[in-house]
């Protein structure tokens, strides 16, 4: 007995839902990038003013080995 039948259906991809989803994504990206300029915050950051390191006087390091 052959329960499968003699016909073979070709798989088909329905493109209409895929196109709908892609259009929704494109519309979302267009809307979000349009308002991105207006959502920026204008912040004035403080500048750091560090003190100048104190100048080291001329130093001479003397080392003595075990042999003198």
Q: SSE string, helix = H, strand = E? A: H
Task: State the oligomer.
Answer: single chain
Biggest β-sheet strands, sense, barrel: none
> What helical percentage do the residues reach?
25-40%
Number of strands: 0
Give me the Rg, rounded.
38 Å
How big a fraction of the residues is strand? under 5%
Tally of contiguous helical segments: 1
Low-confidence stretches: none
What separation lies between the terminal Cα atoms? 108 Å
Task: Report what the structure shows.
- The protein has 68 residues and is an all-alpha fold.
- It has a domain at 15-39.
- 29% of the residues lie in helices and 0% in strands.
- It has one helix and no strands.
- The chain has one helix at residues 15-34.
- It is elongated, with a radius of gyration of 38 Å.
List keywords for this structure.
1 helix; single chain; mainly alpha; 68 residues
Q: What is the topology?
A:
Layout: H1 15-34
Outline of the structure:
29% of the residues lie in helices and 0% in strands. The chain has one helix at 15-34.
